[in-house]
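Sample entry (99 residues):
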Amino acid sequence: MVTKKEDLGFIDLLNNKARIAVMSRDLTPAEIKTYEKQIELKILPSKFAADAVIFIVPKESTKESISMDEISKGMQSESKEFIFDGANSSNLKLCSSKT
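Predicted structure, serialized as tokens:
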């Protein structure tokens, strides 16, 4: 198993460097079109584990939960208290789509 950002994993799939790409989002219409041009197999998306994002806090934090309101405010805040795993992070995209 190799872990990569999903856009890079999708490129590997298109370039026959990967047999399966696990992504936390649906493919865009442009990605589907590119896939269909390059790959002779029918695209078979299958959803699994699509119901959670984990927020991790420092060991000494007293925080035990987070509300959607706190997430929404944190995403819109200038304080930059949330750290995501990169600009193309599927976690960032998921949280942004829910706020």
